[in-house]
Design brief:
Blueprint lengths: L1 H26 L1 E8 L1 H4 L2 E2 L5 H10 L3 E5 L8 E2 L5 E2 L10 E3 L2 H11 L5 E7 L15 H7 L3 H4 L3 H18 L4 E9 L8 H5 L1 H15 L7 E4 L11 H15 L3 E4 L21 H15 L7
Parallel strand pairs: 1-7, 1-8, 3-7, 8-9, 9-10
Antiparallel strand pairs: 2-6, 3-4, 5-6
Length: 302
C-alpha cells in the first residue's frame, strides 16, 4: 500500500511539474517591434493572397496579434485582421493593404507552434531618419528633411517608444512574461533625396539602434534592416549612400542583420508595384518571410 501511495504521489508530482513547465512556456510572450516608412506601412494587396495562405494566417491568428501605429491603447488586432483599409484609388485600386508584419507573424508562429506573439508597429510613409525618426529630434532637422507641415511635427521614435511602453505596461499589469525578439526596420527611401540626409544616414542609424536599446533597457536588442532599393530621385547619389550605410551598420554589429536587395528593376527578389517604389503583394510576402527568418537566427526563448 505504501509503495502504491508513493507511486501515486510521484505521478501527481510529475504531472504538476509538467503542467507548471507548460504554463511557464505559455507565459513568455514573444514581442516583435516594427518601424519605418511606406514599405513598412505596406501596400500588399491582401485580397490577392491565395486561399491556402489565408487559411494558414487564420490558423495562427489566435497566437499572433498586431498593434499598429496609433492604436497602442487599444486591443491589438489578430493577425488575420491586421491589414489597413483605404479607399481604392490611383495605383492602388484595392482596399486591404498589408505590410511585412503579416508574414513575419506567420513565419514565426508556424516555426514556434507553442508560442504567442505580439507585433508592435509604427510606420508613416515619406518620413526621414534625419527628421521624424531622429531620437534627437529638432524642429530644424525636421524642417530640413520632411515634406509637409504634418510630417515636420512628427517625432516618430518617441511615439513608437511610447506605444511599446503602453503595450508592455499592459503585459506587466497582467503579470505576463515577455521577451522582445528584436526590431524590423524598413525605412530610408526618404533620406535618399538630400545630400545631408543621405550622408549622415550611417551615424543616424547607429544612433537610432543605440537609442532603442537604451530606452527599452535591452542592450542586446537584435535589429533587422530591410535594405532600401529606391531609384535615384532628387539626389542621384542618395540611394547608393543609404544602401552602403545600411550594410556598414550591419557588418559592424553582431546583433544587426540585413535583408539585402537588388538595386534595379525588374525587382526579381522583392517584386514592386508599377511605381518602382512600393512592394506589391508578392514583394511584401517575401519581405515578411525574410524578416521572420532573420529573427529566428537570434535567440527565441524556449
Amino acid at each position: 500500500m505504501k509503495t502504491r501511495m508513493r507511486y501515486c504521489i510521484f505521478l501527481l508530482t510529475l504531472v504538476f511539474s509538467l503542467f507548471a513547465c507548460a504554463q511557464k512556456q505559455e507565459a513568455v510572450l514573444q514581442v516583435v517591434l516594427l518601424a519605418g516608412q511606406s514599405n513598412m506601412v505596406g501596400h500588399g494587396d491582401f485580397d490577392k493572397l491565395d486561399q491556402e495562405l489565408v487559411k494558414r494566417i487564420e490558423a495562427v491568428s489566435d497566437r499572433v496579434f498586431v498593434s499598429s501605429s496609433n492604436n497602442s491603447k487599444l486591443p491589438a488586432k489578430a493577425l488575420s485582421a491586421s491589414f489597413s483599409i483605404t479607399e481604392p484609388k490611383g495605383k492602388y485600386p484595392f482596399p486591404k493593404h498589408f505590410g511585412p508584419e503579416l508574414f513575419i507573424g506567420l513565419t514565426l508562429a508556424e516555426a514556434h507552434p507553442t508560442k504567442k506573439f505580439l507585433l508592435i508597429k509604427k510606420a508613416v510613409g515619406g518620413t526621414s531618419l534625419y527628421g521624424a525618426w531622429n531620437p534627437n529630434w529638432t524642429a530644424e532637422k525636421a524642417n530640413e528633411a520632411e515634406r509637409g507641415d504634418e510630417r515636420k511635427n512628427m517625432q516618430l521614435f518617441k511615439e513608437h517608444v511610447t506605444n511599446i511602453e503602453n503595450q508592455l505596461t499592459k503585459l506587466k499589469k497582467a503579470k505576463r512574461a515577455y521577451q522582445i525578439i528584436g526590431l524590423a526596420w524598413m525605412q530610408g527611401e526618404g533620406d535618399t533625396n538630400k545630400n545631408s540626409t543621405a550622408r549622415s544616414y550611417k551615424s543616424n542609424l547607429e544612433k537610432l539602434i543605440a537609442s532603442y536599446r537604451k530606452e527599452l533597457n535591452a542592450p542586446n536588442l537584435p535589429f533587422v534592416i530591410g535594405q532600401i532599393n529606391v531609384l535615384p530621385r532628387k539626389f542621384k547619389e542618395g540611394p547608393g549612400l543609404v544602401r552602403a550605410a545600411m550594410l556598414a551598420v550591419a557588418k559592424s554589429d553582431k546583433k544587426v542583420a540585413i535583408i539585402e536587395t537588388v538595386a534595379k528593376a525588374p525587382w526579381t527578389d522583392f517584386p514592386k508595384h508599377s511605381d518602382n517604389l512600393h512592394y506589391n503583394c508578392e514583394g511584401q510576402k517575401r519581405l515578411g518571410i525574410a524578416f521572420g527568418q532573420e529573427f529566428m537566427k537570434f535567440n527565441i526563448e524556449k
